[in-house]
């Protein structure tokens, strides 16, 4: 009988063992379970990302919205205002006042002009103060305020709203009438509350009858802090401008300002247009970009700070979770999970927190822009691309914040983890 030796069955090679794998669906479930396991901690962790992404959306939305409002206000006021300065040209020393007597009428004949007026600040000596009585009591402090010499067209071009009385007109100017229009702030300081008693103010020792009190103006708000007298009266009493040269304020229709600025000098003095310098409205695109740039820098810095805080919060929470779940990590490794699987698991959890914060922050930022716009009666302007990209910003924040904790979790030795 022949005995035949049987060889043992060949053992599988070590490198032929099938490696464990993880599916996207299981990864999603694990990440969601990790986030919902401690909802309070997860909410507080995502708060930084919520604020960062919300600030990012609010920055872009409010900047775009305010830029559109800048355009609207520019069109209403600045785009309809031209300033002409009396430079005197090469004859400045010999011509203290280059504006002709009929400067208002000359400019108002230009197409697109609604009103125009010349003005300058009157130079007063230290003892010539403004008061409501002929003699100032010794215990009463002197009222030092600007006295503005103006042609009748200035007050019309400023867009006044009267509290009481009226403005002076061409009759007062032609006859050098000693009348005055006060700003509301000056009238209050002088104790003038009504014009029924025909009150007067004294500039130095010269009396002026108060015929009107300004309540508000659209342009040149410093008139509310001044005493305005007719131009011819001021020239007769105090002479032409000395310290500061005269200027002209021109109110125009929308779209006519730049053309008026080009024509004003020749209309005033055809023989000497070099005596004047016209200042047209600024470019609205430049104004909008400057203001928008300032707002962007301010709010984007705030958004970056909030995102940094959110990233630190996510990293800290994920790192604490690694320390708390060391035994779970060891068990997973003992059952065949590789280090890569542990890394992906914790990265998925931190990314889920970042995405959740990004979605909530996008909603919060959008609501903020709409709320502010509704309160100010503005039209909200939101960039659709930014709204769609904002959640991805939160996701990226969570992903970057979880890199180190996830890597640290993958480095935990299985045997040591199980002993804990």
Automatic annotation (TrEMBL):
Residues 301-414 form the ABC3 transporter permease C-terminal domain. The chain crosses the membrane at residues 43-63, 298-323, 352-374, 386-407. It is a multi-pass membrane protein. GO terms for cellular component: plasma membrane. Keywords: Cell membrane, Membrane, Transmembrane, Transmembrane helix. The keyword Aminoacyl-tRNA synthetase does not apply. Its main location: membrane. Residues 42-263 form the MacB-like periplasmic core domain. It is found in: Cell membrane. One of its GO terms (molecular function) is transmembrane transporter activity. It comes from the Bacteria. Belongs to the ABC-4 integral membrane protein family. This is ABC transporter permease. The lineage of its organism: Bacteria, Bacillati, Actinomycetota, Actinomycetes, Kitasatosporales.
